[in-house]
Amino acid sequence: ITPDSITIGGKSYPTDKFTNATPTILEKTTRQLHQIPTHPIAIIKNLIESTFPGFKQYDNFSPVVSTKENFDDLCFAEDHPGRAVTDTYYLNEKVMLRTHTSAHQLQVMTESDKMLITADVYRRDEIDSSHYPVFHQMEGAQLFDAKTAVEDIRKEIVADALNTTGSIHTTDATVITPENPKQDCHDEAAMLATVDHLKHTLNRMVRALFAHEKDLQVRWIDAQFPFTSPSWEMEILYQGKWLEVLGSGIIKQDILRNAGKPDKIGWAFGLGLERLALILFGIPDIRLFWSQDERFLRQFEPGTIQKFKAFSKYSPCIKDISFWSTEGFHENNFCEVVRDVAGDIVEDVQLLDEFTHPKTNRRSLCYRINYRSMDRNVTNAEINEIQEKLREEVVNRMKVELR
Ligand code: PHE
Question: Domain FDX-ACB, which positions (predicted)?
């Protein structure tokens, strides 16, 4: 079923045994939700951009990148799990759909010291109300002269503090540990100043986004990324739960060297726009962002966050499918077939039951598929037809045996 080549954005790419990007996914590359001014994704993007004055904005890069740009340039190990065909969409062995906006860091750093990059990113995943194989990220980075960073940053933070209003509670003390180390090449004072600037800038950004939360709680948790060290995730306390908002850290110096900027030191962060838009607008299901229904699209205005008014919830239709699984079975591959056959009509896929036959050692899986349209009632007859097609395709593509 794989064609000889895939054409996207007017360019053609030969396929090979790595090819796993499906037509359903490739179609999504034309949507560019972050460029539609009345779309919640774009509204959040624009609000965030307004808290980064003087940053150069990029939101127009092709989603097709090389594995070098997405992984190698960013110091991903050869065997990093992110590279797996079960997690990433490949056009062929060397060409893929970006899994994060960091894929453009190096290219942009050669021409800019303050940058924001927004783009659609692609990851193979399970199916539920908060996961979708396409989502949107914003990447930010700022570089300083390593020699004068301490002074430059101190001045900037003092000036900024003078025109800031509102309070924020954050665990600001930065503790450097062997597990989350300083890079040998960095001067400690310059690195710590850059971390202060990173945290200050991102605290200011969330405070603007959550302007209605009187008492926003923020915490910084040690993290690990191949392209930053030290690294942190920012979490905010939202409705009683700590919610991960972004990943960040001090840029690996090799990247700055490759960008032709060996004498700079810098921070970078990356955040997911859907997660913020879901909670800020009160949107119950991630599929809604892709809805073409006017009842969704007409609700929003540029520059304002207003609560989503749900249109009625339509009735679900639940179907189970059971099969004997095979050696290389991966849930993401199963979900891919489900998306391909049924599209956005599937709300949720759950593993209901799993057992290994004591004699044959074969593994049996039972998945429950929850079908529900967001804009109309579905009929049992129509879902039966889809389910029948799914049963066929699961056998064809995954070589499993239905039970
Ligand atoms: N690219 C990372 C991700 O997708 C986020 C990140 C960006 C982390 C920049 C650190 C610096 O998870």
Answer: 312-403
Could you tell me the distance, in angstroms and rounded to a whole number, from the CA of residue 382 to the centre of ligand 1?
A: 41
Tell me what ipTM this predicted complex has: 0.99
- Rounded CA-CA distance 106/58 in Å is 13
Which neighbouring-strand residues pair with 58? 117
Closest CA to 255 of 92, 141, 97: 141
Q: What is the pLDDT of residues 354-394, one digit of tens each?
A: 999 999 999 999 999 999 999 899 999 999 999 999 999 99
Contact 230 CB / ligand 1 (< 6 Å): no
- By DSSP bridging, strand 56-58 and strand 114-122 are parallel
User: Got the DSSP string for 88-133?
Assistant: S-EEETTEEE-SSGGGGHHHHHTT-SEEEEEEEEE-----BTTB-S
Shortest-distance atom of ligand 1 to CA 141: 9
CA 25 to CA 28: how far, in whole Å? 5
Length of the chain: 403
- How far is residue 42 from each of residues 236, 273, 305, measured CA to CA in Å? 22, 9, 11
